[in-house]
Structure formats: C-alpha cells, structure tokens
Amino acid sequence: MKLDIGIVILHYNDAQMTENYIRNLNNLNWEDIRWHIIVVDNASPDGSGVLLKSKYTGSKNVTVLINERNEGFARGNNVGIRYCYESLNAELIVVSNNDIIIEDERFFLKLRDIYEQEKFAVVGPDIYSLKKEIHQSPIRNSLLTEEDVNNKINKIDKTLKKLMIIQKIHMYDTLSKMKRLLGKKPGIEGVHYSERQKNVVLQGAFFALSTKYMECYPQGLYEKTFLYMEEDILAYLCHKAGLYMLYTPELQVKHIDGYSTLRENGDRCKKYIFELRETKESCKNFIELMEDCNGNF
pLDDT digit string (tens) for 71-91? Predict the structure, then answer.
C-alpha cells in the first residue's frame, strides 16, 4: 500500500477533542488523495485512548495506536510517524496536535500541490492561536546557538525562583492579569507570517514531513526530549543535513492551544512551572545534541 498523506494525531485525554478533529478531517476535500489518520494515545489516564480504539475499530481511514506509557511529544509522535513511513509508505506525514481546526476544505489538495512544486523536507502552515489571538508560526527566522540555549536555561532558572514565591502567595492570576492590561499584545517580533519563507523555525502544533526528511532521519523526531524545544531541534537537524524547510501562509490551521497541559496541571501557575522545567530539560538535551559532532539519535 502506498499512501499520499498520513496524519498523525497525538492524543492525551479528552476523546471529544480528538473526535471533533477527526470529524473535521473527514469533512475536507480529499479528491484523488490516498490518506489515513493515525491516532497515537499517549497512555491517557482518563481511558480515552481505549474508547477511541473501540470507536474506530473497522474504520477504513482511522487507526488508533495505544502507548503503554506517556512518551511525551517526540517519542509519542514517532510511534505514528514510523507507522506511516514503514507500514503505510506515506509520502507526506502530517504531525498534528488534536486541538486543531482546519476550515479550508481544499487544505490537503493545496498541501499536495505545494509539495509537488517545492519538494520540501518539512513544511509548516500559518498557525493562528484562538486563545492568544496571534499567528504562532514561524517561531523565529534563525536557529538558536548553543549560547542562546544556555542563556535560555539561565533565564528559566531565574523565572522559576520568582514563580515559586508567587505560587506560595497565590498571586499568579492577579499578576498575569495586570501584565496583560499593562503590556502589549503578545506576538513574535521580527517574523512575518504573511509571506512564504525558507528554512525558518516552524511551530510544532502542525507540520508535515516528506520522504526527503524520513530518508535522512528514519526514526522521525529527535527522541531525547519529553516536551518543548522540538521545533528548534527539528530546524537544527534539517540545517545539519541540508534539508529544505518551508513556511507557507497559503495553508492555515487554527489552534485551540494549551488545553491539555492546563487540564493536567490544574492551575495556570503550576502549568507554567511544569512548562519551564520541561523546557529546561529539553534545552540540556539540545545542547548535548549540538555537542555531538555526528548528531546521531
């Protein structure tokens, strides 16, 4: 079997969110495209992965795979990515959060046409956050250096110290509200979402890998991180191998954004602390990768 497009959806809790997205995908225009959805359940503690597997058993367009433990973003997605590449022989592998909305019925027809024109290794669309009301991709124009990543770790350490104090006095929500009222609307400075760009850092909520990427990195994404920094590592690996990354605003998805970690951690301050700690660990792994002159997984 040769597949044109495989769509990997990483699922963690909340079957309804994933079902809504699958319904959205099913309602799009797939004219002359061979396609299949792979849902990877990351050991959801609410049992929703089992429910999804039962619901879609026998479906011709949906396969549900269940991980025995929560593997995080990269390792979790790699279960689906390798299934698409090795078992389904997919030419394009879309890696997507489950909190995505696609309104353009011709989205995947356009994706196929852009690939035929550009022969990219990785492509990312315009990702609009419904929660933050910003365009999230590209993240930045250039790669992070080792110095940049070390500076990021130092900044995280300082922020964590402040957050621990704020958490103890229960002032996080109040201070966040004041910051929003006094500060400017969040955005990504120096990056323009309205024009096509090559070899920029793409946002990770939705992107596609082609066979050009998979032939170079058949394991999929770099697996030593649990959460965060995946986008920068992906850009680094593509740069190292001379692979072509493309950002194109001709494709757009909407991102509900941040739902799963907030649900898991219960409150916003705890969620932010969790994000920073995981980001710090991922930064350490990124530095380790950069220091490995062979860049092997």
Answer: 999 999 999 999 999 999 999
